[in-house]
Amino acid sequence: MAKATERLFLPFLKRLCPEISDLSMPLEVVFHNCVIVSIKKRYPGQARKVMNFIWGHGPDDEYELIVVVDDDIDLSDLSMVRPGEPSNNIDAGRDLRPLRRPLDALDIPRRGTRYGTRLGVDATRKLSEEGHDRPWPDAPKDGRAHNAARR
C-alpha cells in the first residue's frame, strides 16, 4: 500500500513541481519519515526549491528528511542512494538545510515539544554557480561496481 501511495502521488507532485523526475519513500525508514527526490538539475538552488515545495504541500510537509539527488540515480536501488553515493556531492555547510517547524504528533524522538528540526540534503552535483569549479565524475551505473572500483 505504501509504494502504491508513492506512485499515486508522483504525477500530482510532478504537475505542481515539474523539476521532480521521481521520488521514493523508502519502507526502510518507515515510509513517512523520509523522501528521496530526483531532479533534472538546471540551475543553482533548484534542490532547495524542491525541498521548500515538498515541505510546503499538504501531507508531504511531515517528512523529517528530504534528500534531493540527480535524475540519473535509480531510486529503486537504495544502494545508489546510501550515504556513500550522494555524500560524495555534499558539503555540510553548503548542502544541509535544517528547518525549524512544528512537528507531527507521532514524531517520537521529540515527544512533548511538538516543535523541532527537519533536514533537507542537496545531494545533487553542484554547478559552478554554486561554488564548485571542478568537473564531477560520471554517475555510477551500478553502486556495487562503483564501490568495488573505489576500494
Biggest pleated sheet: 5 strands, mixed
Assembly form of the protein: single chain
* Weakly predicted, low-confidence segments: 143-151
CATH architecture: 3-Layer(aba) Sandwich
Give the proportion of residues in helices.
10-25%
CATH fold assignment: UbiD C-terminal domain-like
Number of strands: 5
Shape type: globular
* Structural class determined from secondary elements: alpha/beta
Percent of residues in β-strands = 15-25%
Report how far apart the termini are: 39 Å
Radius of gyration: 16 Å
Number of domains: 1
CATH H-tier superfamily = UbiD C-terminal domain-like
- From N to C, what is the helix and strand string? HEEHEHEEH
Descriptive overview:
This protein has one domain (2-150): UbiD C-terminal domain-like, CATH 3.40.1670. 25% of the residues lie in helices and 21% in strands. It has 4 helices and 5 strands. It has a 5-stranded mixed β-sheet with strand order 1-2-3-5-4. Residues 143-151 have low confidence and may be disordered.
SSE layout:
Blueprint: H1 2-16, E1 20-24, E2 34-39, H2 46-55, E3 65-70, H3 92-95, E4 96-102, E5 115-122, H4 143-150
Parallel strand pairs: 2-3, 3-5
Antiparallel strand pairs: 1-2, 4-5
Give a summary of the structure in a few sentences.
The chain has 4 helices and 5 strands.
Q: Which terms would index this structure?
A:
alpha/beta; UbiD C-terminal domain-like; five-stranded mixed β-sheet; 25% helix
